[in-house]
Write a structure and sequence with these properties.
Blueprint lengths: L3 H12 L28 E3 L4 H11 L3 E5 L8 E6 H9 L15 E2 L4 E2 L4 H11 L3 E5 L5 E6 H11 L1 H5 L16
Parallel strand pairs: 1-2, 5-6
Antiparallel strand pairs: 2-3, 3-4, 6-7
Length: 182
């Protein structure tokens, strides 16, 4: 038997005004600064670190990318980004050994960035136009502050509109899947 108090608490959660200052999707929400997103500190490496080191950090921290600076610290300028796509297309696809491969050989040098004062709308636009899943955010001296991901933006939107997202009807999709391999 379900506790009625729990159901009421859930209902109150969705009915009460959100703590996000009454944002509306078409105006206020997209004008929010990137600092409003649920971001984490970036994983920073030097260009001389190995791909294996970066991949282990990405795996243990559940991240889709690492960024590089010349000395591997956030106090120096951003020099590159290394993503999951790079693992697939620049290492696995080419049969390279990640244990000895320096990040400098497979990173994207001088990646597209977002200024720290950017808005959510600006980030979405840049990600959409460029096909990026991760964009480094830099300060005025081009030092990394954090990395914005598509997941960060989706999480922000879901938090702002929980009733609309969580009350969507289930879509019955019938697909016939053939088993690959085995």
């Amino acid at each position: 038997m379900v506790d009625q108090r729990t159901e009421l608490d859930d209902e109150e959660y969705f009915e009460r005004p959100r703590a996000r200052r009454g944002l509306t999707f078409d105006s206020d929400l997209l004008r929010e600064p990137l600092k409003a997103l649920p971001v984490r500190q970036p994983l920073i490496f030097s260009t001389g670190d190995t791909v294996t080191e970066a991949m282990r950090a990405m795996q243990s921290e559940h991240r889709g990318c690492v960024i590089m600076t010349d000395d591997g610290t956030p106090s120096s300028k951003l020099s590159g980004i290394f993503t999951e796509r790079d693992v697939l297309f620049r290492i696995v696809d080419q049969g390279r050994n990640p244990a000895t491969l320096p990040l400098a050989d497979v990173m994207t040098p001088d990646p597209e960035v977002l200024p720290v004062r950017s808005t959510v709308a600006y980030a979405l636009n840049k990600m959409s136009l460029g096909g990026f899943r991760h964009l480094p955010v830099v300060d005025e001296e081009h030092r990394p502050v954090f990395v914005v991901s598509v997941r960060d933006i989706v999480g922000f939107l879901v938090e702002a509109f929980p009733r609309e997202v969580f009350n969507l009807p289930d879509l019955e999709v019938s697909t016939t899947r053939s088993r690959e391999g085995a």
